[in-house]
Amino acid sequence: MSSVTNTRSSFFPNAKTTAERSQEIQKQAPIKRNTNAQKAYIDNQTRNDARVSIPEAVKDFAHIKKAVDAAPEVDNSAKIAALKAQIQGGTYKMDYDKMADKILGEEFGV
After folding, report:
1. Residue 8 neighbours by CB distance under 10 Å
2. Are the CB atoms for 9 and 15 separated by under 8 Å?
3. All residues at 6 or more sequence positions from 16 whose CB lies less than 8 Å from its CB, including other chains
4. Of 32, 73, 81, 109, which is the most buried if we count CB atoms within 10 A?
5. d(CA 57, CA 65)
6. Cβ contacts of residue 15 below 8 Å, gap of 6+?
7. Do residues 34 and 46 make contact, with C-beta atoms less than 8 angstroms apart?
8. pLDDT digits (tens, 9 = 90+) for 54-82
9. What gap in Å lies between CA 100 and CA 93, rounded to an integer?
10. Which residues, given as ranges, of the chain have pLDDT below 70?
11. What is the pLDDT of residue 86?
12. What is the pLDDT of residue 84?
């Protein structure tokens, strides 16, 4: 009976066995290490690339969000219920001039 490590597939007669491949890998030169200068350069680049700067707009947004979160919640449920009742009862009257002024103000800053 033949040894498992020396067997080759007849389909690939010139293929190396696993043992031969592992021996070749072990014979290869050791991994080249970085010199001290290269290591210092890499460390410096890593420190520079690892910095994060947060724009002022994001900081302002964070302050605004904290202020909004700290503000008490507004309960409009009574106003909403009254408007729903007016709409369902057919008594709601819309002020078209006020609505137009608000739309123009939002669109054109008037």
Report:
1. 13
2. yes
3. 24
4. 81
5. 12
6. 8, 9
7. no
8. 888 888 998 999 999 998 988 999 999 99
9. 15
10. 1-10, 13, 29-31, 110
11. 94
12. 95
Q: Measure the CA dihedral 108/110/102/78, to 10°.
A: 120
Q: Measured over all CA atoms, what is the biggest interatomic distance in the chain, rounded to whole angstroms?
A: 101
Q: DSSP states of 37-71 as a string?
A: HHHHHHHHHHHHHT-----HHHHHHHHHHHHHHHS
Closest CA relative to residue 16, chosen from 27, 28, 4, 8:
8
Q: What is the pLDDT of residue 45?
A: 86
Q: Give how far the C-alpha of residue 37 lies from the chain's centroid of Cα atoms, to the nearest Å.
A: 34
Which residue matches tokens 């001290």? 36
What pTM does this model have? 0.33
- CA dist 102 to 70, 96, 99, Å? 28, 10, 5
Amino acid sitting at position 28: Q
